[in-house]
């Protein structure tokens, strides 16, 4: 019997389209309907602690506020002791929880700091670790021109801190067969960002690490999640006004904590893109035009940001001279 090639092509096309539409419907269902794992599973309101790196500003500070509201005690880490202290006092008074702080510069990668943190955490039941701390290139810069210090700082702050903090909390989590590790990822780990090469590659590292660790820990009671983040209003993003695609930290973190264990727009194992606008953007990247197209978009965006940043520097230098 002769096969009708047109009918065959139409059938394959329809199946392909149906597959894509089903994928998009699954994303919408995840983002708008499904609930995530209840944080009580990780000890919320039962004396457990959440450890947050980079907790004095932006997304990390918001994690501190929302995890306090859920009843976790907090260990907050970042460079500025005074900012940490203010947050600790505010959250202790507001939620009646315990808050400890530790001021350190992750860029130094000082073993003494990690030792002190290990000692502090020894007596605490750590239910949640949020590997949030991050730093970036000052402005988009070609790798050939980037300073060794910026490169080293990104590796220490964005990669090594997550590895070391995870290594510190994991034994007790595995021992108790309970825990949650959230790693703050970026779309620049999903689609390479030229001119932010080290930041972008560092976030890809975190993504792959989270996937590998997540598989290793399956069935141990410890949940690992790589949080795929597009832009959020913060001092790092240098974006001040929210849009439907760029939320404030508050709705962003709320979406993360409400969707633990739910993929949202993420297609990778142990990944989650929980915020609605980000989830749709993640779906579009994975399903439309191909990765080369999206890298080219990133290239154009970063070149434009660099042009504007250099102009701003020139203006500031001129103003200083006047
Ligand atoms: N905002 C976005 O659009 C966006 C997008 C994708 C991914 N992310 C990721 O989300 C995470 C948080 O970003 P954010 O936008 O909230 O950043 P942010 O507003 O710049 O806050 C960074 C936090 O980390 C602390 N910190 C910075 N460098 C540190 C260091 N060397 N040692 C110790 N603490 C340090 C800062 O406090 P101190 O200055 O007091 O130390 C602050 O609390 C990062 O991992 C970032 O890559 C953000």
TrEMBL record:
Role: Component of the microsomal membrane bound fatty acid elongation system, which produces the 26-carbon very long-chain fatty acids (VLCFA) from palmitate. Catalyzes the reduction of the 3-ketoacyl-CoA intermediate that is formed in each cycle of fatty acid elongation. VLCFAs serve as precursors for ceramide and sphingolipids.
Keyword terms, alphabetized: Endoplasmic reticulum, Fatty acid biosynthesis, Fatty acid metabolism, Lipid biosynthesis, Lipid metabolism, Membrane, NADP, Oxidoreductase, Transmembrane, Transmembrane helix
Main location: endoplasmic reticulum
One example GO MF annotation: very-long-chain 3-oxoacyl-CoA reductase activity
Class in the EC hierarchy, top level: oxidoreductase
Originating species: Bifiguratus adelaidae
Stored InterPro entries: 3_ketoreductase_fungal, NAD(P)-bd_dom_sf, Sc_DH/Rdtase_CS, SDR_fam
Name of this chain's protein: Very-long-chain 3-oxoacyl-CoA reductase
């Amino acid at each position: 019997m002769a096969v009708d090639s047109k009918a065959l092509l139409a059938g394959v096309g329809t199946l392909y389209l149906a597959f894509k539409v089903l994928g998009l419907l699954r994303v919408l269902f995840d983002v708008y309907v499904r609930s995530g794992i209840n944080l009580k599973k990780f000890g919320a309101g039962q004396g457990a602690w959440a450890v947050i790196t980079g907790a004095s500003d932006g997304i990390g500070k918001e994690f501190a506020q929302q995890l306090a509201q859920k009843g976790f005690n907090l260990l907050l880490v970042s460079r500025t002791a005074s900012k940490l202290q203010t947050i600790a006092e505010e959250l202790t008074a507001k939620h009646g929880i315990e808050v400890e702080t530790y001021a350190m510069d992750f860029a130094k990668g000082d073993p003494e700091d990690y030792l002190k943190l290990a000692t502090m955490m020894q007596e605490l039941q750590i239910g949640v670790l949020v590997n949030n701390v991050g730093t970036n290139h000052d402005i988009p810069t070609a790798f050939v021109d980037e300073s060794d210090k910026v490169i080293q700082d990104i590796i220490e702050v964005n990669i090594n801190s997550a590895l070391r903090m995870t290594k510190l909390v994991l034994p007790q989590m595995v021992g108790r067969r309970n825990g949650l590790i959230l790693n703050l990822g970026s779309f620049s780990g999903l689609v390479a960002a030229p001119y932010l090469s080290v930041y972008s590659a560092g976030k890809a590292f975190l993504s792959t690490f989270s996937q590998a660790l997540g598989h290793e820990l399956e069935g141990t009671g410890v949940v690992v999640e790589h949080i795929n983040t597009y832009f959020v209003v913060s001092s790092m993003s240098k974006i001040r006004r929210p849009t439907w695609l760029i939320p404030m930290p508050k709705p962003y973190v709320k979406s993360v904590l409400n969707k633990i264990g739910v993929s949202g727009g993420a297609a990778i194992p142990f990944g989650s893109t929980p915020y609605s606008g980000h989830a749709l953007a993640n779906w579009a990247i994975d399903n439309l035009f191909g990765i080369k197209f999206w890298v080219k978009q990133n290239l154009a965006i970063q070149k434009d940001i660099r042009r504007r940043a250099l102009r701003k520097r020139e203006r500031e230098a001129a103003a200083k001279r006047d």
